[in-house]
Each structure stands twice: as structure tokens, then as C-alpha cells.
Write a structure and sequence with these properties.
Elements lengths: L12 E9 L2 E8 L7 E11 L1 H9 L8 E2 L3 E6 L5 E4 L2 E2 L5 H4 L10 E2 L11 E5 L3 E3 L6 H4 L2 H13 L7 E5 L3 H12 L3 E5 L3 H6 L1 H7 L2 E2 L8 E6 L5 H9 E9 L11 H9 L3 E4 L5 H13 L1 H4 L3 E5 L4 H9 L5 E5 L1
Parallel strand pairs: 11-12, 11-14, 12-13, 14-15, 15-16, 17-18
Antiparallel strand pairs: 1-2, 1-4, 3-5, 3-9, 3-18, 5-6, 6-10, 7-8
Helix pairs in contact: 1-12, 4-5, 4-10
């Protein structure tokens, strides 16, 4: 049943932004989505624009099915009661081994909001009730939408078991790398960042200073217990392994987009130095809840990561800027 058929809500159509095909994003009126069993209708208040959204617009993605309303970093409120939530963008089966052991982000039957089903670049979105993560009144919606990317960084740190007091090197000072640094600080570890684009370091200086992030010129000869790539170049892996202490851990957080090969001699370093290499993809509901707590605690600092508040109509114009890697977070306000 479409929820509007019950006459509870007079709105029949909504403004939305649809990726009709790769490279073609259209702003148009669409019907308010049907609400199926186990789902809830949310009025979207904010949806952050992720670099993955921009990449899907330009070249697609393995889990993307078009036409699609993109957007998975969502904050909104339920139509009855107006309780506010961010969402865990997955829909897991709940029965497989991964789901039962709390790693539902690896569910083989995963469906992702904004990938497999319509997302938050619209006035309304339907999501599974199990994906709702409540947020406190004191957390603004434009900050709350960063819970999903922050939770993904928490997942990365957990994959390599980052410990208090350790030194963690992060490749990339984009929004993901900076949120990673915040997550590192919350584990009472020490974040360091390498960024080859000086403009990116410049625009995030306030955030770096507040968090206490050290940048490349301060640690040229250091070795680290942990290294994480929040940039998509294979060089982050090639250089990162050499930066690790014996027994250290590397987390592959960002997938590689170039075709450079990895020398066998470098792979042997994993063997001789007894390194740990782990992948990280997505996040769990528990990690989203932890991210909400961190954002609430640091909301006056995290606000420095917001480049601009924009409308739905402006999303297509910011995609090229996001892919240029010289900006922070754009947040759509509805």
C-alpha cells in the first residue's frame, strides 16, 4: 500500500534527483515511494553528497542499478511523531553467518539504499525499520549525515585493531581521511596524514588544528604501527607498506582506481615483516551508533568539514568539484 492512499499524508508527488543513466542526472517530480512491510517513510531533511555518488554518476558502480535516486548519507524524520534518524544504508538478510556474528555489512544478500534501491536525493525515502538509528536533539541534521562515512572509518580501524597510544598514518586529507583522523583520536591513538594536494590541507586547516593532526613534513622518517589509505592510488599501498613497523597493519579502505601493478618484492615485505593487511567496506549498525555519539561530542569541530549547504538542483554541479578532490562535504538541505 502506498502510504498516501491512506489519506494520512496529502503529498502525492515529491521533488527528486534521478540518475537516469550514467552521466545523466535529472531533477523531476516522482511519486512518493510505496511503503512495504517492515519499512518506514522518512521525510528527508539532509543528505550529504558522497564521492561514491559522484563516481556512480560518472562511471557507475558494481552494485548500482539505474535508473536510481542516489544518496545514502541520510537524515530525516518519521511522519508520525517526527522522531529524527540517520540510517544505516544497508538491508541485510539477518540470517546468514555474517549477519549473526554482527558483520551485517558483509551480508551476501545486501541491498543498499542509493545503490540497489532509491536513496536520499529526494524529499521522501522508504527505509527498513531495522536501519533507523535515532539521533539526539542536540545533534544538527547537517552534522548527523556524516555518521555513515564516520562509521565506515570506525570499521577500518577495527579491521586492523588500532590500539590506544599507537601512531596511525592516513593517506588522503579528503573528508574520509579527516573523519578517519577523528576516529583515531577517539581511540586515544595519534593520527598523521599524507596529502599530495596542498590546497586540500589548506581548506581543512581548522579541523586539523582542532583534532591535532600532524601532516607529512612532520614525520618523514617515522615508521607506524598502522597505515590506512583514504585515497585511491596504488601508490598509497606501495608506500604505505614501507612505512609500517614490523608486525604492523595496513587497511585497504579506498579501492584503487589506477592500473599500476604491485611488485612481488613488495608483497614479500608482508611476509618478512609479518604485516597484517585487511580490507574494509561499509559499516555496521553498531558502528553508526558509535559515530552518532562521536559527532554529538564533536559537532562544533565537525562543522568545519562542511564545504557548503546546497539544494537538490545543485547536486549535479558539485559532482565535478567532488571528483577534483579539492573540496570537503556538500550537504543537501530539503
Amino acid at each position: 500500500m502506498n502510504i498516501v492512499d491512506s489519506c494520512a499524508y496529502p503529498v502525492m508527488n515529491m521533488n527528486s534527483l534521478i540518475l537516469e543513466k550514467i552521466g545523466s542526472l535529472n531533477y523531476q517530480k516522482t511519486p512518493v515511494p510505496d511503503v512495504n512491510y517492515g519499512e518506514i517513510l522518512l521525510k528527508v531533511t539532509h543528505c550529504a553528497v558522497c564521492r561514491t555518488d559522484a563516481k556512480m554518476w560518472k562511471m557507475g558502480q558494481r552494485d548500482l542499478v539505474v535508473p536510481r535516486i542516489l544518496g545514502h548519507e541520510i537524515c530525516g524524520y518519521e511522519m508520525d511523531g517526527h522522531k529524527r534518524f540517520v540510517i544505516w544504508p544497508g538491508k541485510a538478510c539477518g540470517a546468514c553467518v555474517q549477519c549473526r556474528q554482527g558483520t551485517e555489512n558483509l551480508c551476501e544478500k545486501m541491498e543498499i539504499t542509493g545503490f540497489h534501491k532509491n536513496g536520499g536525493f529526494a524529499e521522501y525515502v522508504t527505509v527498513p525499520k531495522s536501519s533507523l538509528i535515532p539521533i539526539p536533539d542536540e545533534l544538527p541534521g547537517d552534522i548527523a549525515v556524516l555518521a555513515e562515512p564516520l562509521a565506515c572509518t570506525i570499521n577500518a580501524l577495527e579491521r586492523i585493531n588500532v590500539t590506544a597510544g599507537s601512531n596511525v598514518l592516513i593517506y588522503g586529507a579528503g573528508p574520509a581521511g579527516l573523519l578517519m583522523a577523528l576516529a583515531v583520536k577517539e581511540k586515544n591513538a595519534n593520527p598523521f596524514i599524507i596529502e599530495i594536494n596542498p590546497d586540500k590541507l589548506k581548506i581543512s586547516k581548522k579541523f586539523q588544528n582542532e583534532i591535532g593532526i600532524k601532516t607529512a613534513q612532520e614525520f618523514n622518517l617515522m615508521k607506524f604501527e598502522f597505515v590506512i589509505n583514504a585515497a585511491s592510488s596504488v601508490d598509497t599501498f606501495l608506500n604505505g607498506l614501507n612505512r609500517l613497523k614490523n608486525g604492523g597493519g595496513f587497511c585497504l579502505f579506498s579501492g584503487f582506481t589506477d592500473s599500476k601493478s604491485i611488485p612481488a618484492a613488495l608483497i614479500n615485505e608482508i611476509h618478512y615483516k609479518q604485516l597484517k593487511v585487511a580490507g574494509a567496506y561499509g559499516c555496521t549498525r553498531k558502528q553508526i551508533k558509535e559515530a552518532v555519539e562521536i559527532l554529538t561530542k564533536h559537532k562544533n569541530i565537525v562543522v568545519f568539514l562542511i564545504e557548503e549547504h546546497i539544494s537538490l538542483e545543485q547536486v549535479s554541479s558539485v559532482f565535478p568539484k567532488i571528483l577534483s578532490s579539492a573540496v570537503l562535504k556538500f550537504v543537501v538541505e530539503l
